[in-house]
Specification:
Helix 14 runs parallel beside helix 15. 44% of the residues lie in helices and 22% in strands. The protein folds into four domains: 112 residues, Beta-Lactamase (2-Layer Sandwich); 104 residues, Beta-Lactamase; 83 residues; 144 residues, Heat Shock Protein 90 (2-Layer Sandwich). A five-stranded mixed β-sheet has the order 9-10-11-13-12. The protein has a four-stranded antiparallel β-sheet with strand order 1-4-3-2, sandwiched between helices. Strands 5-8-7-6 form a four-stranded antiparallel β-sheet, with helices on both faces. It has 16 helices and 13 strands.
Length: 498
């Protein structure tokens, strides 16, 4: 045969001299997609067209006169298949077969073969017509499709986290996977053929929900729903359900694909998280109310009493002999310093009204005061896409307040920067100073002497976030934490690090 990709020279069988070639013969001889040739009654080849040469590789002069069994693999010849096919064609008028055939070079191809017995007007067998088509590529494609479908079917059947099954157009179950059995409790032989409404609670069936869901799926292509469903034993589970209408190429509804996932544990976790969020909000409100009460008590009672003591000391200073002046002065200074510390304490316990002025303004005011007292340069950077809810804002303020207190008391820093940014449905906060540093990265349980670290971490984690502290490579410390900021009244969405 010629090299692969090169068409062999095609030789057309020429009619005997003196007989013109008919239109039919011209048509048959010119066809190249089918091997069309005739056999005599014994099975020997007596005609050959261009398609036969292209598919099988033989020129007409190389094959005419040979028995057609030359195209069959050895195992078919040993089984007597060529003669058997002629016998069937004689008995039934025709035979159609698919199987392996051989080209001239010995390579195999998958052939669709039709052999037709040819009888004359007297009923005498004149021979056979043989039409062969090379189906190798189609067979490969069909085989690949079957393997792909089998792999997909195997995948679907073995998925255990999702119930995946099909319904006929009326809603009756026609397939069932391992996940469906695990989630709903039925074996395939127990449920196939039943209406899918068996999974719905009585109140949904009374309301016509199953049929309504199929109607919506047909109208819109799909339907997604969450609600209670029933297992075989009658227990309920919270399900996420997607129903997809399945149409064929003509637009006819063939049925529905249904995917169900058991969301009971997730729903319980979300409800617990909602409850935790509500409890956290109550706790924060209670803490802040108690702080305000203590701050007012200190301001209205303790500080006023200390101011009165200071005024009495000043009055006494003018009446005592000079030798007591130094002691009275020191006592007055101590009282004045105590008043200052108490006022600072009341400010820390009762910060600006965050819900009125906003988190960034409240932090800016507090940062300016701390920096002024400690002689620090300071900067506040904020890139928030929305104001956090009051409970989140208060928690952020309190953690920043503790971090800035540590900077003022222990860091020996010259500058401090606080940054606020929206990230992952929450607020990411960094407090950065250039002081002596916190040493190695620290995010484990705080040591007993670091009660401020314990408080910061517990506040962040109680609010559903995270917190850590680490030293900077060039000196100084970074305190950073993240808190979720759900919409008011909505469930907190816990951040998952990427």
């Amino acid at each position: 045969m010629p090299d692969a990709g090169q068409q062999p020279p095609l030789h057309r069988q020429v009619p005997p001299p003196g007989r013109p070639e008919t239109d039919l013969e011209l048509l048959v001889q010119s066809v190249i997609d089918y091997a069309i040739f005739m056999l005599d009654p014994s099975g020997r080849i007596i005609s050959w067209n261009a398609g036969a040469q292209r598919i099988k590789g033989y020129a007409a002069e190389e094959i005419i006169g040979k028995h057609f069994s030359v195209f069959y693999p050895p195992e078919d010849i040993a089984a007597g298949k060529p003669d058997w096919e002629l016998e069937v064609a004689v008995a039934e008028g025709r035979l159609e077969d698919e199987g392996w055939r051989l080209r001239q070079d010995g390579t195999r191809f998958w052939a669709n073969v039709v052999i037709t017995a040819l009888f004359d007007n007297t009923g005498r067998l004149r021979g056979f017509g043989n039409v062969t088509r090379d189906m190798t590529e189609r067979r490969k494609a069909e085989q690949a499709l079957r393997e792909s479908e089998e792999r997909f079917r195997f995948l679907i059947q073995n998925v255990i986290d999702y119930a995946i099954f099909m319904l006929d157009p009326s809603g009756r179950i026609i397939s069932w996977n391992a996940g469906a059995q695990r989630i709903k409790g039925y074996a395939a032989e127990e449920i196939i053929g039943k209406h899918f409404s068996v999974f719905y609670p009585p109140e949904d069936i009374a309301a016509g929900k199953p049929d309504w869901e199929l109607e919506v799926a047909v109208a819109e292509g799909r339907l997604e729903d969450e609600g209670w469903r029933l297992r075989q034993d009658g227990t309920r589970f919270w399900a996420n359900v997607v129903i997809t209408a399945l149409f064929d190429n003509t637009g006819r509804l063939r049925g529905f694909g249904k995917v169900t996932r058991d969301m009971t544990e997730r729903r319980s976790a979300e409800r617990a998280l909602d409850e935790r969020g509500r409890l956290l909000n109550h706790l924060i409100h209670a803490q802040e109310a108690e702080r305000r009460r203590i701050a007012w008590d200190v301001h209205d009672d303790t500080i006023q009493s200390m101011v009165a003591v200071g005024m009495r000391i000043q009055l006494m200073a003018g009446r005592l002999p000079d030798e007591h002046a130094a002691a009275i002065s020191r006592l007055n200074d101590a009282v004045t310093a105590t008043i200052g510390r108490l006022r600072h304490l009341t400010f820390r316990m009762h910060p600006p009204e965050i819900d009125r002025v906003g988190l960034s303004v409240a932090l800016s005011d507090y940062l300016a005061q701390v920096a002024s007292e400690a002689g620090l340069m300071w900067e506040l950077r904020h890139d928030l896409d929305r104001e956090p809810p009051p409970e989140s804002a208060i928690t952020i303020f309190r953690i920043c307040q503790e971090a800035l207190t540590n900077v003022r008391k222990h860091a020996q820093a010259t500058s401090v920067t606080v940054s606020l940014s929206s990230a992952d449905h929450g607020v990411l906060v960094r407090v950065i100073d250039d002081g002596t540093g916190a040493g190695p990265s620290y995010d484990g349980p705080a040591r007993p002497e670091h009660f401020g670290l314990i408080e910061m971490r517990e506040r962040a984690e109680l609010a559903g976030g995270w917190w850590n502290i680490e030293g900077r490579s060039g000196g100084g410390t970074i305190v950073q934490f993240w808190l979720p900021t759900p919409p008011a009244g909505g469930p907190a969405e816990r951040y998952r690090p990427k």
